[in-house]
Amino acid sequence: MLKLDKVSKTYKTGDKALHHACFEVPAGQVVGLIGPSGAGKSTLIRCINRLVEPSSGSIQLGDTELTGLNRRELRRARRRIGMIFQEYALVERLTVMENVLSGRLGYLPAWRSYFRKFTGDDIAQAFSLLDKVGLADYADKRADALSGGQRQRVGIARALEQNPELLLVDEPTASLDPKTSRQIMRLIRSACQERNLPAIINIHDVLLAQQFSDRIIGLRAGEIVFDGPPDALTDDVLTTIYGDEDWTQLRGENGSGDQGEDASGVDLMESA
Ligand SMILES: Nc1ncnc2c1ncn2[C@@H]1O[C@H](COP(=O)(O)OP(=O)(O)OP(=O)(O)O)[C@@H](O)[C@H]1O
User: Fold this and answer.
1) Statement: residue 8 has pLDDT above 90
2) d(CA 161, CA 132)
3) ipTM > 0.90?
């Protein structure tokens, strides 16, 4: 479980990016983090793994208080947090398998990590994950030979290879077309359900967030202004988060046929 208590961040420039964020994410829950540009979504995600140092507040992952950790302890704690990025963050010249296995690097003793000596279990798990994300035949392909959707599948497999306790996902679909975006969200959600893994997904697309999250947290100017189930995102709530807009028309334009899908049990092997 993840617990944030009064987490705030003021950057050196004086920008107050986050103010007193408080929430808990239980095992298995997928949280869609929404809000306008500059609302503090990335800051919130980055405070959790301390890529950004919070100015104050407490962040607990299980029994570990993340804010007080020294560099070495933080390295160990980060092994427990899988990250999925908008731009995939793969090593382009390495193979798909090598990229997935890099999820285990934090677990290897230094000499094994230097020589990239992974265990048989690590390799077996990587094959199984590649199969799960529909890339069983791509293990030996170089990452730079893949499409965006395929790269993001590698990113998901790499994060899961860590056997994380928490997934932090930063705009996973921002560079992808609508169909591929849905496939990627479906894959993340199904992995969380299978592993009882909590996730926080920073996502701009409100409809995708609604469709594939168990819960929505809405940020505006660094404050949490909504925290509730996806179907409670009424036009009034959206206006509170984003300001005035014709939400009915927007839903009509973007939402045809996409509403109400049960994300579980959908074929994950649809090609990317
Ligand atoms: N490194 C930084 N230094 C100073 N200010 C920053 C820094 N990073 C973000 N900010 C400011 O903090 C606020 C929140 O930014 P953040 O990137 O967290 O928002 P966001 O909701 O993720 O936006 P977007 O959706 O556009 O990525 C903004 O006012 C931004 O200008």
Assistant:
1) yes
2) 12
3) yes
